[in-house]
Design a protein that fits this description.
The complex is a heterodimer of chains A (about 150) and B (about 270). Chain A is α+β, with helices and mostly antiparallel strands and about 150 residues long. Chain A has helices at about 5-10, 65-75, 80-95, 100-125, and strands at about 25-30, 35-45, 50-60, 135. In chain A, helix 2 (about 65-75) packs across helix 4 (about 100-125). The longest helix of chain A is centred in the last third of the chain and has 24 residues, at about 100-125. By secondary structure, chain B is mainly alpha-helical. Chain B has 2 domains: about 1-110; about 115-270, Ferritin. Chain B has 9 helices and no strands. In chain B, helix 1 (about 1-15) runs antiparallel to helix 2, helix 5 runs antiparallel to helix 8 (about 205-235) and helix 6 runs antiparallel to helix 9. The radius of gyration of chain B is 20 Å and the shape is flat. The model of chain B has no long low-confidence stretch (mean pLDDT about 90). The chains are: A alpha+beta (about 150), B mainly alpha (about 270). The interface of A and B includes residues 4, 18, 59, 60 and 67 of A.
């Protein structure tokens, strides 16, 4: 399947879209410029001293690029431990300067939402009432014009 | 009922014969049932939301989806026996029985709405125009679905006749756009159910802010339609004319939303 076909597939059938009843943690990635955001729900199990993402779902107020990014990143993160999930986040954030700005903002929103949800889970091990964390993104969704203004 | 409405709309999109219009009519009836049941819940003070399961509609034959809808309708019919409003339950149940009997007799057909062909019948689009068109259809079909739910929720929770007239027009307009884009998606082989709308979008806390943002969004949508019209216009006069028509409709929506905004502001001043 070529890249375009894969994109169509994720747009037609986004993986892991929705919420988890009795989720262990939730986290938000937010674009302060336009109010778009991604909410990640996690169900986590402890296995051999590691926190493993047993189930993951996402919801979004955003464009179809955000849905595609959410579908891909949550598929990668499902079933992995937190160390591997941190790698996925780092990899995603590391490639943002190589993609168009509007795509970078969408992928960053999903990555930081996952990070927020994992941080909430870790905090809740000590304080079960720890609130949902919301991280803002750095990339802008706006495409700069010819003069470099946004 | 929410899911049944959507699934019946989808059955209409993927159907290519005369039953198509019949399925759209049935979907419209289910949408009315959805609003009646919502009104009933509000009346008895029951909390509710528009959450639903992800709906899977990718079938090879129309009968596969119709069987699935009939199964859901039968389950809904059973649930209605516990409804406190007997008149309402009877009315909906009667509709369900008739619709099931018609659906059972519908001629089967193989479905091409999921072929992922990315070709619009009778039109040859460049790769760029195809990508722009595809993206537009995914974005806007969701957006129209979202607007239907938002205006429906606002209408359900308002007893202001002036505003409800505006909300109903906007619901009808979004239903038309949703139907138009769904038909196009089926022709392109990319038919899919819009994703679930987040509760905070339709449970509007600040209506003035919502309308102000909505006017901005309509202006953006209008510009996107204009750009798309230009992109596809070189290759298809028919598609360009359609998007010009949609662009003009966005103007009307903006006018209605400005009227609603002025009404809300006046109400706030009077209060």
């Amino acid at each position: 399947m070529d890249a375009n076909a894969q994109l169509i597939e994720h747009m037609m059938n986004p993986r892991n879209y929705g919420s988890i009843e009795n989720a262990d943690a939730q986290g938000i990635g937010k674009n302060p410029e336009n109010g778009e955001k991604v909410l990640i729900h996690l169900k986590v199990k402890e296995e051999a001293d590691k926190s493993v993402i047993e189930d993951i779902k996402f919801q979004a107020i955003g464009c179809s690029t955000t849905i595609v990014a959410g579908s891909i990143i949550t598929t990668e993160a499902k079933g992995v431990d937190f160390d591997r999930a941190e790698d996925i986040i780092a990899f995603t954030l590391g490639m943002l300067d190589r993609v168009p700005p509007e795509e970078a903002a969408c992928s960053e929103m999903v990555a930081v939402a996952l990070k927020a949800a994992m941080d909430v889970y870790t905090k809740r091990k000590i304080d079960p009432e720890y609130p949902v964390i919301s991280y803002k993104i750095n990339n802008s969704c706006e495409i700069p014009d010819e003069k470099g203004k946004q | 009922m929410h899911e049944v409405w959507l699934e019946t709309m989808m059955a209409g999109f993927m159907s290519s014969q005369e039953k198509r219009e019949q399925l759209f009519d049935f979907a419209a009836i289910f949408f009315r049932h959805f609003t009646w049941l919502e009104n009933e819940l509000i009346k008895i003070g029951e909390t509710y939301d528009y959450d639903r399961d992800m709906v899977s509609i990718e079938v090879e034959k129309l009968s596969d989806l119709l069987h699935h809808i009939i199964k859901k309708l039968s389950a809904l019919d059973l649930q209605l026996t516990g409804s406190p409003d007997r008149m309402l339950a009877h009315r909906i149940s009667s509709d369900i029985h008739y619709i099931i009997s018609v659906m059972r007799k519908m001629e089967d057909e193989r479905i091409g709405a999921f072929s992922r062909a990315l070709r619009y019948p009778g039109v040859v689009l460049s790769k760029e125009a195809t990508q722009a068109f595809t993206r537009f259809l995914f974005e806007e079909s969701y957006k129209e679905y979202e607007l239907i739910l938002i205006y429906n929720y606002l209408k359900a929770h308002s007893d202001d006749a002036y505003l409800n007239r505006i909300f109903q027009i906007l619901i009808d307009e979004s239903q038309f756009h949703f139907k138009s884009f769904g038909n196009m998606m089926a022709k392109m082989g990319i038919l899919s159910v819009p994703r679930i709308v987040m509760k905070e979008l339709y449970e509007v806390e600040d209506i003035v802010q919502f309308l102000e943002d909505g006017i901005e969004e309509e202006l953006t949508a209008k510009e996107e339609c204009r750009v798309l019209s230009e992109a596809v216009g070189k290759e298809s006069a028919e598609l360009a004319a359609f998007f010009d028509f949609i662009t003009m409709q966005e103007d009307y929506h903006i006018t209605l939303m400005k009227e609603a905004l002025a009404h809300y502001r006046k109400k706030e001043m009077d209060d």
